[in-house]
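Q: Could you fold this chain for me?
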Amino acid sequence: MLKSQKHVFWQALFVTILIFGVGIVFGIILENWRTGKVDELYQRSEISLLDIKLQTEIYSQGDFKCNSAVRETFNFAERIYEEARQLERYETASTLSEELKTRHQKYDILRANLFFNSLRIREKCEDSFNTALYIYQYNNQSIDTKAKQNVFSKLLGELKDREGTKLLLVPMAGDNGIVSINLIMDKFNIAKEELPVILINNDIKINDLTTVEELEAYIKKPKTRKWSDSSDDVIEKEIEKEELKVIRL
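A: Sure. Below is the predicted structure, expressed as structure tokens.
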């Protein structure tokens, strides 16, 4: 009887150790796979940074076809949006928080540059699409802020589904230490304490809303306010500095 109990004990111990060991190995494999995916996103973001830099040069010369510019801008926005969503999924499941934060900053710079380019395209192409700039908190979110941002994200997603290529949605973190984004916020009188904020067509600032219909009402009444040349130059130079800074990391 005693021998039988010992035999059962050793069997249970062996199974426990085996399961524990398999769990550790699986965890290591999963983390390595996740790291590999993050590295892949990193390579894509490097290419995208160079790509959008060239796009900015082209748009600054003003010699481009509106149809092509609008189409490529929306394609680029969709691609970096999907890549950033992948990164966010890895952020919630990975221990590489600081490294992922740096990579998140890269996508913020990409989006800032994308927004900057969209202003030039809309100026030349007679407001051929609406813009919704969504600036949110990335760090130290309170429960209320997180809940509000979830609502904003959901409503903006619904609005984008309805509007399609009539709306360029550009989300970016406003508290990630990116100077060019800080300058954009200053230009449109957006304080960090106000976040999250939605800016429609560079003119309508929204801090509170409850339905997608509220947003849609603003979208259907676009108002455009052009930036001065001096403001354009300052923000563009800061974007260039941020790109170089992050590329060196």
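A (continued): Residues 119 and 227 are 8 Å apart (CA to CA).
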